[in-house]
Design a protein that fits this description.
The protein is an alpha+beta fold and 741 residues long. It has helices at residues 2-7, 21-29, 56-60, 90-99, 115-122, 129-152, 175-178, 218-226, 229-239, 245-251, 310-321, 341-344, 349-367, 369-372, 379-389, 425-446, 450-471, 479-516, 530-568, 570-583, 604-614, 620-642, 656-659, 672-685, 691-701, 710-727, 730-736, and strands at residues 12-16, 83-87, 154-157, 263-266, 274-284, 287-296, 301-304, 308-309, 392-396, 401-405, 411-412, 645-647, 662-664.
Length: 741
């Protein structure tokens, strides 16, 4: 048999059972490798290998040994978790040897290298084939779970070992392959998917009408081959039957692995991407309280969870540990004996910071359990407990699944978004928003990879440590030195944000394009065609990636950034606040807004966007987006109140005349010179806090690709308004009845 395998010109796949001594020895030797979870099974059979994290050294040390025929990337995993060993023919071996020097990840891995993994290798963030294998396996695991979750709102598990059963959805095919199988106007999903399309041409032969593979196990397949057609049909119906774990277990005393059919985890009310950070701690009645900030990518909402104490975290852990034993393996801080409520507040700052970080890691690990951890039928109940702890629930009705907050105040960009002027823009704007959030959910899963997770954690920890050292000498330094130090730190953060964004764009654009070609985004097809369409599409991708990068990097550093900006620009902002308070009571004519351009509503909708979007949003990109929305709202409101017609130029150049809105009127036109005094009036009315520090933040952390173009133009207008107010002499203004422009 060995000679036949070696002489055949075709590749041969041999399944290696876990009871293979050579395989078992390697796996046992590396049982404690970081983040590798090996589930031991019974004797003499195929034992499931559940790989969730890093196993780089396992594969590294196999190179040069008889076991080195394991595929470094894209290794086949059998349905029961067996690793497929690929034995190459002599011709293939010769070809691989010739190409092995071309790249770090050429050779056995061949072309099966995801572009993102290749990008990580080029940046030298991963250096071995073992790390490559780990990243590929994790990405595949995230994608398969997400694909099934978004398709069926559930996960289908093997009741014996809780492995994910394969699932197929016709909507996951590329349009060119699925057009003969589904109607593009009848999409089953209620929301946009965030996984790339499949490249196959049609549904598999062993797939039933509901998309579930008929083959439940090797035993079931063999039995089906021997049964008659009627018994096969009944067996297929039993295997594909929906059996939610909670109801089935309560009705049966048998354990999961003895139940008939597969186990389904219902995930209808589980949020797919929650970003959680503990931003601050404070003392409340001799106890340390934690301020938890939450952002839901699906809805675009951000809020602060109810104030929580250490006891609340401990109660949560106790409650969910009863549902899943894996929770006990998640690191959790211990206060130790003798630390009572009266002593908790007297702990050192370093002890509080360490516990805060540990609690944040605990919460973020729970948020990612559906993607990263070994699946268990109670994982949905764990997620529901966590969401309640964070102050949110999911409201489910016949036609919609929406986020419901527990008496929290949230800022949602859609509440003040720019309204379209054309009838067909609403559908296009909704499709654009859904595509942006789909790309953002994809990016969210990339940050769950251990390589990016460690990279971000190390940068954040280093930035915080550097800030702590600098703040010790803050009283001995002048304002100029504080500003220089703040600008240097902001520049460092900006460089890291830009590099992460470019890394993800380089490695993820191929999948982003695949996602954008789904039926859910057909209304954007015309907008994304041609040279202008490619620019439009790529900018949408960059917006989504930038927002997620800021969520992962800027938010945990927000407190130290704010502290530096507040101390450095304190005097400037105090002067600005005084002047804006005085000017807030002045009429529009005081700002030299022409009478025929004055607003009966005093531009209230514009001031509201600036107040909520710029003043209360967390992310710099959201603040910039609000400035653009407010600027466009000026033109929209002027058109509405003065019965004018409006159109926006496609950017033909980078001059202000091309970037400003083009107002087509029969009489009076709102030019760029007319726009600035109106915008100054709105900035004064918006009551934005610390406007000088805000300008520094937005100017420094703005996406480089947006510093020219629409965003750059309106940001310059915002800065011009702040600079004009700051330079205004109120005494001379009162005496001379000043002209503000």
């Amino acid at each position: 048999a060995a000679k036949m395998i070696m002489n055949t010109p075709d590749p041969v796949v041999v399944h290696a059972r876990r009871n293979d001594p050579s395989v078992t020895a390697v796996l046992k030797e590396h049982r404690n490798v970081r983040n590798a979870l090996i589930e031991q099974g019974g004797e003499g059979g195929s034992q499931p290998l559940n790989i969730n994290q890093s196993i780089s050294q396992v594969w590294n040390e196999q190179q040069g040994s008889p076991e080195s025929s394991f595929v470094a990337s894209g290794a086949d995993i059998g349905e029961e978790g067996n690793i497929a060993r690929k034995i190459n023919s002599p011709q293939q071996t010769k070809h691989m040897a010739e190409t092995s020097n071309q790249s770090t990840f050429s050779g056995r891995s061949g072309p099966i290298v995801h572009p993102f993994v290749r990008a990580l290798a080029q940046k030298r963030l991963i250096r071995t084939k073992g790390e490559q294998t780990m990243i590929l396996r994790m990405m595949n695991q995230f994608t398969e779970r997400t694909r099934q979750w978004e398709s069926t709102a559930s996960l289908r598990l093997n009741p014996k070992n809780f492995d994910l059963r394969p699932h197929f959805d016709l909507n996951d095919l590329a349009k060119s392959n699925s057009s003969t199988h589904i109607d593009g106007n009848n999409i089953r999903r209620t929301y946009a998917p965030s996984t790339p399309t499949l490249q196959q041409t049609g549904p598999p032969a062993n797939c039933n009408s509901e998309g579930y593979y008929i083959r439940g196990s090797e035993h079931d397949t063999a039995a089906m081959e021997d049964d008659d057609s009627s018994s096969v049909k009944s067996r297929r119906q039993r295997i594909s039957a929906l059996s939610y774990p909670a109801s089935q277990v309560r009705q049966s005393r048998s354990p999961f692995w003895e139940l008939e059919g597969d186990v389904f985890i219902p995930l209808v009310g589980v949020r797919k991407a929650l970003c959680v950070r503990i931003l601050n701690t404070f003392t409340d009645n001799d106890r340390t309280a934690y301020t938890i900030w939450v952002y839901d990518i699906e809805s675009g909402k951000e809020w602060y969870a109810p104030v929580r104490y250490y006891r609340d975290f401990k109660d949560l852990r106790t409650a969910i540990s009863r549902l899943s034993q894996a929770i006990a393996q998640v690191p959790f801080p211990n206060v130790g004996w003798g630390v009572w409520k009266s002593k908790e507040a007297s702990e050192s700052v370093s002890a509080k910071e360490l516990r805060c970080k540990q609690l944040e890691v605990f919460i973020r690990t729970l948020c990612a359990m559906v993607y990263r951890a070994a699946l268990h039928p109670n994982v949905a109940e764990v997620a529901v407990h966590l969401q309640s702890f964070l102050g949110c629930d999911t409201c489910i009705d016949e036609n919609n699944v929406s986020l419901q907050l527990h008496m929290q105040v949230a800022v949602n960009e859609t509440s003040y978004a720019h309204r379209s002027f054309e009838e067909d823009d609403e559908a296009k704007a909704n499709a654009r928003l859904q595509l942006k959030r789909s790309i953002q959910r994809y990016t969210y899963r990339l940050f769950l990879l251990s390589t990016l997770d460690d990279l971000v954690s190390q940068f954040v920890d280093a930035a915080k440590a550097k800030h702590t050292e600098e703040m010790r000498s803050i009283d001995r330094r002048g304002r100029v030195a504080l500003k220089e130090n703040a600008m240097a730190d902001l520049k460092m953060i900006q460089d890291f944000l830009d590099q992460l964004q470019e890394l993800i764009m380089e490695g993820g654009t191929e999948d982003f394009i695949s996602i954008s070609k789904r039926y859910n985004f057909l209304s954007l097809k015309q907008a994304m065609e041609g040279n202008n369409g490619i620019t439009y599409r790529d900018q949408l991708f960059r917006d989504a990636v930038r927002e997620q990068v800021e969520l992962e990097v800027y938010v945990p550093l927000r407190s130290i950034i704010s502290r530096q900006l507040v101390h450095g620009w304190r005097n400037d902002d105090r002067e600005m606040q005084f002047k804006m308070e005085v000017l807030r009571h002045r009429p529009q004519s005081y700002f030299k807004i022409r009478p025929n351009h004055q607003s009966p509503s005093e531009w209230r909708s514009v001031s509201k966007i600036l107040h909520e979007g710029v003043g209360r949003s967390t992310l710099p990109c959201a603040k910039l987006r609000a400035i653009v929305d407010a600027s466009k709202e000026v033109a929209r409101l002027y058109t509405e109140e003065h019965n004018q017609s409006i159109s926006y130029n496609v950017f033909a150049g980078l001059s202000p005349s091309n970037l400003a809105p083009n107002i087509e009127t029969q009489s009076d036109a709102l030019s760029a010179d007319d726009f600035l005094p109106i915008f100054i009036f709105c900035v004064v009315k918006s009551q934005i806090e610390r406007p000088c520090a805000l300008c520094v933040l937005l100017r420094t952390l703005c996406d480089p690709s947006k510093r020219i173009g629409e965003t750059g133009y309106y940001l310059a207008s915002f800065e011009a308004a702040i600079a004009h107010i700051r330079e205004l002499d109120l005494a001379d203004a009162e005496a001379n009845n000043p002209t503000l422009i």
